[in-house]
Amino acid sequence: MTKKKLALRVISALVVLGVVGYLAVYLATVLFGGGGGDRTAALPQPLDQQLVQRGAYVAFEGDCAACPTAPGGKPFAGGLPLATPIGAVYSSNITPDKETGIGNYTFGDFERAVRRGITPRDHTLYPAMPYPSYARISDQDLQALYAFFMKGVQPLDQKNRQPGIPWPLSMRWPLTYWRWIYAPAVQPVVPLADADPVADRGAYLVEGLEHCGSCHTPRGIGLQEKALTPQGDQYLAGGVIDNYIASDLRGDNWAGLGAWTEDDIVRFLKSGRSDHTAAFGGMSDVVFDSTQHMTDADLKAIAHFLKKLPPSAGDHTFTYDQTVATALYHGDVSKTGALEYVNNCSACHLTSGKGYVDTFPALAGNPVVNAADPSSLIHIVLKGGTIPSTKAEPTHFSMPPFEARLSDQQVADVLSFIRSSWGNNAPAVEAAQVAKLRATLDPPTVAKSP
Known about the structure:
Blueprint: H1 3-32, H2 49-61, E1 81-84, E2 87-90, H3 107-116, H4 131-134, H5 139-151, H6 174-182, H7 197-209, H8 213-216, E3 239-241, E4 244-246, H9 262-271, H10 282-289, H11 296-306, H12 323-329, H13 338-344, H14 346-349, H15 375-383, E5 385-386, E6 398-399, H16 408-418, H17 431-440
Antiparallel strand pairs: 1-2, 3-4, 5-6
Helix pairs in contact: 2-5, 7-11, 9-11, 13-16, 15-17, 16-17
């Protein structure tokens, strides 16, 4: 046999093996991908108005309005783009419309979708739907949610948008393997070891309904949350979402909640602001659509649980340094970025970096400022931001976008100045980092020449 014929046979054999292997792994998802649950299960209690009202509150706890409602769209009708590293996916219509929504879902269908990530056709949902966290929702809360979505939400005829993910990454069946590997079985939240019922309630809300880890926990190579529970130091240690950094929620004094009191956390969740920072990006939606509507008891439980999380390794305490404030007060703008700060930032955030309480957040000691990754700061400077208007704090204040005013180098300079002043000590920002993020924002803008 010639070498050419031998090579052709080897290639043919590899192709056949590849096809057989592909079919095998595909058929495994068809035959064994059901994931449990009972599609035919009916709601085990009367669907009355009291249960619907209870479900409306659980929907607030689960932040169910933010993702399924597109900007300017109808509530729960879907269409919100959710950015992922492989393309955008769009939230689904979860109104009880029988043609385009979930109006034909049995309670069993609803349970499988919410807690297991499985559609009535046995397809696996994209994990943009936080079913790894929702696996911890109690039976009682799930029943109330079903009642609310079936009888408390207006049905709307709006077709779902197809994901903006290119083939072959858009194939759904491989997600079954993702679910098998990374999504937990339906299970209750494990009580904490110190028999603290308030913290246990907070753990249930944080780990389950509020699904805080979906944004605030770093993700691994498979885009999975590196931890779903407080065991280990990755849980709630900070994540990336929509080109923002979701802050560290652990006990770090430097970039987390170590310097916050429980009352600080409650106030932030009720109003979107505190003495330490203000809500921005996706967190503004969380406050507006979810946490401002929750009871003080539940907010205190969340705060109590979060304050039990220890800091990450290498944490240190912020100490205010007057040096830069004194220099700016005397007109010294010799430090790189100082002139840009005085011209663009100091009117609101002050030369002291302490800002105005309840109006413009302090930059000195701000955990967002001191985060290792400056993406949130770059994003806010380029696109601006607005503190949400809430029942507790109905006024809202906005920061204008500076994308057309400042070049990449100027943005890098002013942020490096902020991150190294008043006791802050975070890495400098490079112009290339600004240019890279600027190019990803919608719509992208051209950097102004210096």
